[in-house]
Amino acid sequence: MGFLKGKLALKLFQERNDLTKQYWGKHLWSRGYCVSTVGLNEEQIRKYVKWQQEREQKG
Prior knowledge:
By secondary structure, the protein is mostly helical. It has helices at residues 2-15, 17-22, 42-58. The longest helix is centred in the C-terminal third of the chain and has 17 residues, at 42-58.
């Protein structure tokens, strides 16, 4: 997953110059990702996003 996110980010930065200004340092994605084989509801997604944000703030 990290490989795909990295390649997509590079392509986006090449095609869209405005992203370079907005996302200094070329950090477009968070470090993690969520995979579900059963399906998630909105509450579960919100919890995951909140958890991911807290994790990013901690470093």
